[in-house]
Amino acid sequence: MSLQIPSYLFLGDCNTLGTPDIEGRAYPELLAKHTGARITNCGHTMCTVREGSEYFQRYFDRSQQLICIQFGLVDSWLTFKYAPYALYYPDSPGRKLARKLIKKYKKWCKQLGLNRLLGSKNVVPLEEYRARIHQIIQEANDIPVILIETIPNKDTSRNPEIRRYNQALKEIAQSHAQCFVLTLYDDFAHAQQIHYSDSTHLSEAGHAYVARKLQQLIEQKL
User: Which residues 6+ apart lie within 8 Å of 64 measured at CB?
Assistant: First the structure.
């Protein structure tokens, strides 16, 4: 009788996908290599939990034994209060054009000082962030979910909001028996030069570190 190969779904942003030089060798793939699991990596550059909800609806199935969610980097980003948002997934020519126009609009607003004058907001408000993650966990039903903390940014002005969204992950996990948090923020705050390829993205060493720590958590909790 053959053993069932575990199947894991990963939802996340650029640090789940990996930068172009690392893509295909990011921490989900490293975990698969070390454990023999079959993985579906839905990491996508610039994605938020909004796109994560779309990916979940398309790629989730009941045969999966684990869902890993890693959003917060873009979600927590402070931007012009009245800036619209165009999804990165599912994508279309119209959305690509909209994002280009929105980017120019936000740059223009910043240059005019409108961010300071009229205010800023998170790309995804914290309550929406919470609600979308709760919804994924509820729809997954009894399948375990690991919420992965966002690592600190070397642009330290972004870190208070990153910490706030990481705290929300811990609070969400407390509401669901099958949900766990992979804590990374403090680890990376003390090893930035080793584990980063730039101010934002994981290096090869960083992906290897996350894969090892994630494997340890899976072995302990699942």
Answer: 7, 8, 9, 40, 143
